[in-house]
User: Fold these one by one.
Assistant:
Number 1:
Amino acid sequence: MRSPVLLVIAHGSRDPRHAATVHALVRRARSLRPGLRVETAFLDFDTPSVLQVLERLADDGGADDVIALPLLLTRAFHAKSDIPAVLREAAARLPRLRIRTAEVLGPSPLLLAALERRLWETGLRPSDRSSTGLVLASAGSTDPEAIAVIADIARELRHTGWCAVRPAFASAALPRTEDAVRCLRSDGCARVAVAPYVIAPGRLPDRIAEGARDADVLADVLGPAPELARLLLERYDGARVRELAALAG
């Protein structure tokens, strides 16, 4: 019996670095499970689209079971509206395909591990936490649930020993990165680091970087971190387990 295809659905961007990073992440996940068929699709700007990939899967006869994984860190508009709408349209057009949706990536301890990996890659050490204020800089959202998740993550990080942790947003919500940096300075932190809680480069991560100009440290985006690749497979496996549990019940 064939395993379901894993379809990773990214948002897409006019910035070519976005798609390149998504493809690098998917390649890493594929390398962790060589027997698994993993496909990539984009909601906007980049190709192939979700419908194009699903039509190809339906036409080639090599797959009839798909688990769609939103490459998103929180359950905001794209997870609640855009992706379900696209998948409903695909299911109506392609009745021979069985399409299920995995959970979004966050929150997860693996994301925090990837975030800290990027911080240590700047030259910071775990022992620097106590003197370093951390800005957890996300893309931002108008969805209160997504904003609350970022605030919860900031509180969780504070308990790991950072001098102070403040959330910030590149759009749709406040504070901005530069404001969070100033607040941490006024809190008395000897050093300020900005950790982008975003997957791939693009317009909003560039806005985060601009807001971090007065910080001492700016980490890279999460990108194809090994922890993130493992998380893709964890969400895929979770979708399969939920289905088996439903069938057993």
Note: DSSP finds eight helices and eight strands in the chain.
Number 2:
Amino acid sequence: MIQQLTIGQATRAARVTRKAVRVYEAKGLLPPAGRSTAGYRLYDDTDVERLTFIRRARTLGLHLDDIREVLAIHAGGIPPCVTVRDKLDARVAEIDKAVADLLALRRTLVETRHRAEECVDELPVTVCSIIEGP
């Protein structure tokens, strides 16, 4: 017999929130839960495994669409490892770009700050070199 878990039990086992479970159900990442005679959502071990996978994938920064694709490939009986590697490579590229953008912003801020040395808080008010720009 398959063990049926309440949403509270399933969330504790998968280490996700109830809100996350509802979002994943609404987005089609998790099949709709069965219901008890009292109307409570019920989950099984397969649901907990799926929730755990989704949590891990989100922790790695995968987008919900990426996770949906990986789950669909897996459901089709095909090992999704190549797809997962491709998705992780894409995330690394996104992070590398974000780091480069942040480093460029940092350089700009430091250069602008150095130009601010020319600014003096005196009257009469003059235009600050930072506002005037290069």
Note: Helices lie at 7-14, 18-26, 45-59, 64-75, 81-115, 129-132.
